[in-house]
Amino acid sequence: MLGALVCAVLLFVLTIVVFVFKEAWPSFQHNGWAWFSSGGNVDRQIQEIFTAAADLRRPVYTFHAWPIIWGTFLITTGAVALSFVAALFVSVFIVEFAPEWIRTILEPVVRLLASVPSVIFGLVGVLVLVPFIGEHVISDDNRRSVSYIVSLSGYSLLAGVLILTLMIAPLMIAVFSDGLRSVPRGWLEGSLGLGINRWRTFWKIGVRTARPALVAGTVLATARALGEAVMLAMVTGGVAFAPNPADGVIFFVEPTRPLAATILQASEELTAPAMRHTIFAIAAVLLFSALMLSLTGWVVKQPMKKYGVRA
Amino acid sequence: MRFVTPPPVRRLPLAGEQPATVVEPGAPGGAVATSGRRLQASPMAVERMTVDRMSIAYGAKVAVDEVSLPIRQGEVLALIGPSGCGKTTLLRSLNRLTELTKTASMKGRILLDGTDTATLEPTALRRRVTMVFQQPNPFPMSVFDNVAYVLREQASRRPRKRALQGAVQSALERAGLWEEVKGNLAHPALRLSGGQQQRLCIARALAADPEVLLLDEPCSALDPISTQVIEELIVQLREQVAVVIVTHNLQQAFRIADYVAFMYLGELVEYGPAEQVFGAPRADRTKEYVSGGFG
Questions:
Q1: Contact A195 B124 (CB under 8 A)
Q2: What is the predicted pLDDT for the residue at A310?
Q3: Between A187, A193, A307, which is nearest B97 by CB?
Q4: Strands, E assignment, B28-137
Q5: What's the burial of A240, exposed, middle or buried (CB within 10 Å: 0-12/13-18/19+)?
Q6: Bridge partners for B129 per DSSP
Q7: Euclidean distance between the first and final Cα of chain A, in Å?
Q8: Closest residue on chain B to A211 (Cα)
Q9: What is the radius of gyration, based on Cα positions, of chain B?
Q10: Residues of B in Cβ contact (< 8 Å) with A306
């Protein structure tokens, strides 16, 4: 009975994957590897694919996704890196150093934050962070210097990264602190009993032992960051622009749009076949990244098992 | 079973057969030559720690009540007594591990070489007075890294592996584990047998050259053969460090201890040479306990 259920679920997942890749294939087929390259304006390409679809005999498939892939990469790595550092320190504090009363407050708060819907984060971003960046971070000189390429309004990479950090950090903290808590007391005491101070002990034994949990939490949070659409569509500007590091500090306040948010914005245009294939191609890239992410997590965990650290 | 005459247990070869190795600069009576088991406090033994009217309470519950004891290098001191009598608490207070328990409060003094341990940094104290726990708790690292851990943490700059080799080897040799692991120091410590793990923990505790070694029922999780190996090891070690062992195994205390302290309900009931405590106990409660009357 249970076996049948497991098989059914597996079959269902497999069906989804096969369906997505099948629907995505025409877009990849027409563009080849150029699908992943840069060239042209993604928003304009989407527009053309949609309008040309009226003439079913000559559909347009040209799509160069690099700006939105780059945007996804920037936002995800930025948010994951920031929240990893923050979450590590916060969870070490919660598990090992916080007084009891702080712990009893912090833990439910973290769990609550982890379950707040992303629209609410997006709303906070739009109402608080975006205006703040628009008014206080971006100067008029900044605006003028790139005005012929892109307009800076506060909807930006920075806003996306910061809000996404807030969103995924609680998830990481929850997984990290569970991992740190399950470090056997005896190992920590053994180190303390040798005259190693509490901080070093927790760092060298506790965190080291909990590495598999750190990997698991990071993979989980990265997957959520990759798939986040609503909040990022709200705060990153909705322009398929590739922020350019050569612009210096302005790089951080340039708008962008990740893959998932692109799907969200284009979802009304699904009726046109060429459009549908293009959107499914984006979905296939996301799905593939998630798959790779899990695989990477698994690979990274393997050497940690060598010395008997539990995974 | 009564210990009117010592029970027919196996006596270990005592350290007298080996050349003595204690050389303590500045300490009176530098080299100690011993032969066989001492029956009284040897004038040559070096007193390292003094427990002076120590009381420890967890909240309102008194775990150790006004205990005074000397701890000497060159002797094994065994703390015995029924479960919950405070022997482990007393042991943990020797390197201030009791402070990790938030509710614990202490009165009295413990001196290490004449210095009140309360005035020392806990980390500095715990490097000089190291602890081996009841459950073998090697870190999830290789055998080498387990022993090198303390050395690396104590160094101000991370030493190279080559530089640690000698110290690691000597620690493993002192713990009697070298011959078994020398072929593969990269072996995961958690894959060693229980007895080997415990000896690794002893090696780890010895690596930093402590002055006092505390053992909290080190054999209670081990099989008889591993126990025998560790007992022999403890008897040898007493020349190099002062050894305090908590045990609930009377036979074991009799086999390896030079001095025995019997505790009951937090009080030190009797302290004296092992032969006397087991053979001719002064207090009635000791007599009952060593003859298996209770506990």
A1: yes
A2: 54
A3: A193
A4: 46-58, 61-73, 76-80, 104-112, 115-116, 129-132
A5: buried
A6: B212
A7: 29
A8: B140
A9: 19
A10: 188
Copy the structure tokens of residue A19. 């369906």
Specify the residue for token string 């210097």. A145
In the CATH hierarchy, which top-level class contains the domain B45-290? alpha beta
Q: Which of A193, A204, A208 sits opposite B131 (nearest CB)?
A: A193
| Count of CB pairs separated by less than 8 Å, A with B | 77
Average pLDDT rounded to a whole number, residues A208-233:
92
The answer to whether the Cβ–Cβ distance between B139 and A309 falls below 8 Å is no
Q: Picking from A146-155, B94-103, B280-289, which range would have the lowest pLDDT averaged per residue?
A: A146-155
> Domain residues of chain B, as ranges?
45-290
The average pLDDT across B129-148 equals 90
Q: Is B89 left (phi over 0), alpha (psi -120 to 50) or beta?
A: alpha
Q: Is residue B201 less than 8 Å (CB to CB) from chain A? A: yes
User: A170 pLDDT band (50/70/90 cuts)?
Assistant: very high
Q: For the domain with range A74-266, which CATH number is right: 1.10.3720.10, 1.10.1670.10, 2.60.40.1640, 3.40.50.2300? A: 1.10.3720.10
Tokens 């040479």 map to which residue?
Answer: B273
Gap between the Cα atoms of A163 and A180, Å rounded: 26
